[in-house]
Specification:
Layout lengths: L1 H25 L3 H21 L3 H24 L23 H28 L5 H7 L9 H9 L1 H19 L13 H24 L7 H17 L11 H23 L12 H25 L9 H7 L9
Helix pairs in contact: 1-2, 2-3, 3-9, 6-7, 7-10, 7-11, 8-9, 9-11, 10-11
């Protein structure tokens, strides 16, 4: 009975996931599409959990559904309201922008064919590959990694270059955000319900982020999940009317945003000076070095994602003295 129940659960998850994906793509209302996208991310997190990948499930729920959905809703907030009267007939769509039904079917068949080819290649590769898998190699050397969670061992030790490049991509994204211009307008002060929710929810999120950072050494968690939770706290503060989203100002904010890449590179260069390979952690110090790197990465990820929700170059990026120097006409006692 348990086996049949699990098969039915898997079938239900597949149908719901495909249905939400189709509804999201077919939605003509952007807001409805974003809500469906968030629901799709939450169901996808359940799918990853069902596949025994809790680390990916946590990242999908926090980043793929939560923060990505918040960013999309914030972008829609800046969109002008459509002035179309529902009583008026829909404007005619230019013929050149319409896709004939035959073209739609052709695209669908090509996508289906591509999916079948990729599936066949994947199955053929698994059947003919060396039975020695990466998981077996990781578990065989897990004791040298300094942690007992194989995912953290791969991301921060065995394949540390990948994580360093991911943090570099986040830093490049932050530079793109700052190049957009001034930040988007803030929100009005929150009412009693949202203000009360923020007062008790933000400390809980900060504690949860710290827990996910610490537990990542031996259980699902780590810097990306912890950073996303910290960014969620910043989003709540921003929605509650705190323009800076709880972030520090000036040099402290810049240092926080650079901390992930800077600490990662500093540790790697220090190991080179000590005569070891770049990011080649000595087993006796591996756990401590991974914790230091993940702590800095958590703060950088949280700050970067919060700045993405703010959108543009925030006023807090420059110190009060720098802001007064850039705009001498403003009042000198303005923070």
């Amino acid at each position: 009975m348990d086996g049949i129940a699990l098969i039915l659960l898997d079938a239900l998850l597949i149908l719901v996931l495909l249905g939400l994906a189709w509804a999201t793509l077919e939605s003509r209302d952007p807001r409805r599409g974003v809500v469906l996208f968030i629901a799709f991310g939450l169901v996808l997190a359940l799918v990853w959990a069902r596949l025994a990948a809790p680390d990916v499930a946590l990242a999908e729920a926090a980043i793929g559904a939560g923060l990505s959905g918040a960013l999309l809703l914030a972008a829609l907030r800046d969109e002008p309201e459509a002035g179309h009267d529902p009583s008026e007939p829909e404007p005619a769509t230019p013929a050149k922008r319409r896709l004939p039904g035959l073209t739609n079917w052709a695209v669908g068949v090509l996508c289906l064919g591509l999916g079948l080819v990729v599936t066949w290649a994947f199955v053929d590769t698994l059947s003919g590959a060396d039975p020695e898998r990466l998981a077996g190699q990781v578990m065989a050397r897990l004791g040298e990694s300094g942690v007992s969670n194989p995912v953290t061992a791969v991301l921060l030790n065995f394949r540390g270059y990948d994580t360093l490049l991911e943090l570099a991509v986040l830093l490049a994204a932050l530079l793109g955000i700052l190049a957009l211009g001034p930040e988007r307008g803030g929100y009005a002060p929150a009412g009693p319900v949202l203000a009360g929710l923020g007062r008790w929810l933000v400390p809980v999120l900060i504690l949860t982020g710290g827990y996910l950072l610490w537990v990542g050494a031996h259980a699902p968690g780590g810097a990306f999940q912890a950073g996303a939770v910290l960014a969620a706290a910043g989003v709540i503060l921003r929605l509650a009317g705190y323009r800076t989203a709880g972030l520090p100002q000036g040099l402290a904010l810049r240092a926080l945003s650079l901390a992930g890449v800077a600490v990662f590179l500093a540790v790697g260069l220090a190991l080179l000076v000590a005569g070891r390979p770049f990011l080649g952690f000595p087993p006796a110090w591996a756990g401590t070095l991974i914790l230091v790197i993940e702590s800095a990465a958590t703060l950088a990820i949280g700050a970067t994602l919060a700045l993405a929700f703010i959108g543009g170059r925030p006023a807090a990026w420059d110190s009060p003295e720098q802001r007064r120097a850039l705009n001498p006409t403003q009042v000198h006692n303005q923070p």
